[in-house]
Amino acid sequence: MTSGDGSGPSDAPGRWIDSHCHLQDTYRPGDTDALRSVADAADAGVVGLVCVGTDAETSRQAIAFVHEVRAARGSGVGSVPEDFGAWATVGLHPHDASNGLAEVERVLEEAVSEQGAVHGAVVVAVGECGLDYHYDHSPRPAQREMFAAQVALARRLGLTLVVHTRDAWDDTLDILSSADRPERVVLHCFTGGPQEARRCLDLDAFLSFSGIVTFKTADDVRAAAALCPLDRLLVETDAPFLAPVPHRGESNRPALVPVVGEAVAAVKAMAPSEIAASSMTAARLAFALT
Q1: DSSP character string of 231-274
Q2: Measured between alpha carbons, how far is 94 from 130 in angstroms, rounded to an integer?
Q3: Alpha helices in the chain (DSSP H)
Q4: Which of 83, 191, 214, 218 is most enclosed, with most CB atoms within 10 A?
């Protein structure tokens, strides 16, 4: 349920983690201040977010963004709350698979080597990576090779794997099934139906639901959300993409993750506060967040 003026959730119940967004420079609208976006999210009940890289440059930017947020916490700069959580991922999107993994791997290795226990991990996952047969911006053999390589990389480094899949369920699940996959796998922006959800859950994956769950034509996605166990269900915005109803046409933002959560709560016949609590717990498990 949203407020009467369509500005957002009616009471933003609970505390939310946006498990997948892109707030780094490449993706952020030119007139949007990064710390203002975080402050707005905090005002909506969001207590943390994962900023996702899609190539070497956007991965570097995601890491820099997380450092910026952490440095601003509790300082009054941008009004970022002291306890706001921010984490990054490093990965190669299937669209860019033709570029190879070497530079992304260098960014990841450097970031992991610099992580210390004092301030907690900055980089928590490899990805987003996977297969996209809808656009085929890179040849499918290259996509499969780079996806398998990142599965192995996440396993070797003990990181979560963040998976993008579009029109490629069989090959995606074949690679995840046959590979020595990491302990934690997140199917980001889940777009499958109940059958695909069960196949992913059989692999012990987490399913992350985006604003698509609010779309009129997304009955299959809602059915998947309905059957997904709470301990495997995450919510995300995929900002600046896929703004939920009634914000279609706007640039998406982490402040709207409660709208996604309310839609999930509706299909599961639960209170939004329950989804907030369970999805936050699941996100912390999925990314081993500290």
Answers
A1: GGEEE---TTS-PPTT-TTSPP-GGGHHHHHHHHHHHTT--HHH
A2: 6
A3: 34-43, 56-72, 102-114, 140-157, 169-178, 194-202, 219-227, 257-267, 272-287
A4: 214
Kindly list the domain boundaries of the chain, sorted by start residue.
Answer: 16-287
Q: Superfamily for 16-287?
A: Metal-dependent hydrolases (3.20.20.140)
Model confidence over 86-143: pLDDT tens digits? 999 999 999 999 999 999 999 999 999 988 644 579 999 999 999 999 999 999 999 9
Q: Which of 54, 61, 60, 130 is nearest to 92 (CA)?
A: 54
Evaluate if pTM is beyond 0.85: yes
Please confirm whether the linkage preceding 240 is cis (ω < 30° from 0). yes
Q: By C-alpha distance, which of 155, 158, 215 is closest to 190?
A: 215
